[in-house]
Amino acid sequence: RSHSRCDIFPDPGVAGQNRRPNPPPGVATPGGRCEAEALSGELTIDIGIDEADRVAIAEGLSKVLADSYTLYLKTQNYHCNVVGPMFNTLHLLFETHYTELALAVDEIAERIRSLGYVSPGSYAQFIELTQIPEGTGEEDAMEMVRNLAAGHEAAARTARTVVEAAEPAGDVAT
User: For residue range 56-104, what is the model confidence (pLDDT) as tens digits?
Assistant: First the structure.
């Protein structure tokens, strides 16, 4: 039997090992095509949302991603550098926040990809897209708290603009 590039596709692992068959031709996969086709760039996105709407939503989500990643870095920076009588409380609070932000960053980036677009992922891209200033880690503890609160408020405002684009498009997942 001859094999197409969709009959067998390697799993991650040592080259030549851990190979598994893809579903037989014609069997739908989560993306609608075999992995090899999806990775080759031939995948067409048809999720019932017009392309113009997907572009607007993905651009908005890219800004939310940049705000979230900037908050993640800022919060982790503050976690490492907070000092003073509230050290333990703030150290633990900041750790909880940056852990939650890390999960959010992943979810937002995956949503951008599911809309058919490449999510931003570099510091340079995030700096261009975010409205949240970086922190130095030299702020006093209460200034750190104020800066993070302001950052979360800014991220919430950015997220609202995405909701305004997603709702009329019927994009309930976003």
Answer: 999 999 999 999 999 999 999 999 999 999 999 999 999 999 999 999 9
* pTM (2 d.p.): 0.75
Provide the CB-side half-sphere exposure for 95 (13 A, CA).
Answer: 7
48-60 pLDDT tens trace: 999 999 999 999 9
Phi, psi of 20 (to 5 degrees): -135, 150
Chain-centroid distance of CA 98 in Å reads 14
Q: In whole angstroms, what separates CA 115 from the centre of its chain?
A: 12
- Chain-centroid distance of CA 57 in Å reads 13
d(CA 140, CA 138): 7
Residue 58, SS3 per DSSP: helix
> Could you please report the per-residue DSSP string of 81-127?
H--STTHHHHHHHHHHHHHHHHHHHHHHHHHHHHTTSPPP-SHHHHH
